[in-house]
User: Fold this.
Amino acid sequence: MQGRVTWVNDLTFVGEAGSGNSVVMEGGRKNNGLRPMEMILLGVGGCAAYDVVSILQKARQDIVSCHCELEGVRPDTTPSPFERIEMEFVVRGRGLKESQVARAVELSAEKYCSASIMLRNAGVEIIHRYKIEEI
Assistant:
């Protein structure tokens, strides 16, 4: 995996991944892009949500939508790394089995999501919850 971060102006940067995709990052003064810690939070949510959807699809669950609500808790110090991240998966579908959703979230947390496992190993408390919405 490769990437490059290039300073644009003031505290605005463009991150370019080896895949060719890019994102604007900013230090928070002008709100021109994502803050780097927001990217970490969103990356963890994206990694875990990918796992949950993939696992539920393989289990032939009739999933219509899924999103992950995230809350990152950081101290008011410098540096201010995440102390805790709370993730709630909201899974919508028809006839979803709660045991399958619970298992998908557990497998993501314990086996598949590299981002959350990396942060957990670094001492970040990661809380996983889910909610099922029948349609």
